[in-house]
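Quick one:
INPUT:
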C-alpha cells in the first residue's frame, strides 16, 4: 500500500473516534470510517508479473486505452497510446521500459477533464523520457478534473527497470505514452490494461518471454 493511504486512513479513523466520543451516533461515525476504508483500498499497490524479453514496452498505468495513433513530434513520428484512469483503478504508475532517465519535466497547468483531447496540452503534467540504449520512450502523468497531485519519484540520470514503480496520480487521470513509430502495437482502443504487466508495443525482432514479479 502507498503510504498516503495509511495517512488518510488513520486520519479519518481518528476523526471517527472523535465523532463517536462527542456524539455517540453510529450513523455519523460510519461516514469517516467508510471514507477511511475507501482510501486504504484506493492506495493499494499490488505486485505485478512484469514480462521479460527484448523490445517490450509495458503500460505505465492501469486503465482503458482511449487513443492509439501516430503523431508528429520534434523527434519525428511517434505512436501515442492514451490510457484513462478512473477512481477504481490502481493509481501507482510504473516505468514502461528499462534504461536511463533522460528527461523529467513538471509543468503546472489546469485541471480540465482528462477525457478532453486538449488536457494533454493544458493540464498539469510530468513528462518522463527513458533511453533504453537503442530507442527512447516518453510518457506523461497528466492531472485531471479530480486528480490534483502528481507524484514522480524519478530524476534525470536514474537507471530504471521495466515495470518499476515510479509514482502515482491521485484520484483519476490519464497517461500518454509515446513509442517509436516502428513499434508493433499490441493493444487497441477500449482495451483495459494493467500497469507494469500489459504489453503496449514490441520493437521489431523482439521475442517476448516470461518475467518476474515486482
Amino acid at each position: 500500500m502507498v503510504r498516503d493511504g495509511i495517512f488518510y486512513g488513520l486520519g479519518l479513523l481518528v476523526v471517527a473516534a472523535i465523532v463517536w466520543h462527542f456524539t455517540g451516533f453510529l450513523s455519523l461515525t460510519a461516514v469517516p470510517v467508510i471514507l477511511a476504508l475507501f482510501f486504504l483500498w484506493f492506495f493499494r499497490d499490488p505486485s505485478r508479473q512484469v514480462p521479460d524479453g527484448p523490445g517490450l514496452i509495458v503500460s505505465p498505468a492501469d486503465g482503458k486505452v482511449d487513443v492509439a495513433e501516430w503523431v508528429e513530434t520534434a523527434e519525428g513520428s511517434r505512436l501515442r497510446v492514451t490510457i484513462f484512469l478512473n477512481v477504481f483503478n490502481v493509481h501507482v504508475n510504473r516505468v514502461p521500459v528499462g534504461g536511463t532517465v533522460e528527461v523529467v519535466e513538471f509543468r503546472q497547468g489546469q485541471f480540465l477533464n482528462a477525457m478532453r483531447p486538449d488536457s494533454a496540452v493544458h493540464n498539469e503534467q510530468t513528462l518522463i523520457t527513458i533511453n533504453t540504449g537503442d530507442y527512447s520512450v516518453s510518457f506523461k502523468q497528466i492531472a485531471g478534473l479530480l486528480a490534483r497531485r502528481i507524484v514522480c519519484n524519478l530524476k534525470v540520470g536514474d537507471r530504471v527497470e521495466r515495470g518499476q514503480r515510479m509514482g502515482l496520480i491521485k484520484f483519476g487521470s490519464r497517461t500518454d505514452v509515446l513509442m517509436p513509430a516502428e513499434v508493433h502495437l499490441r493493444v487497441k482502443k477500449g482495451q483495459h490494461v494493467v500497469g507494469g504487466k500489459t504489453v503496449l508495443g514490441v520493437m521489431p525482432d523482439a521475442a517476448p518471454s516470461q518475467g518476474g514479479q515486482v
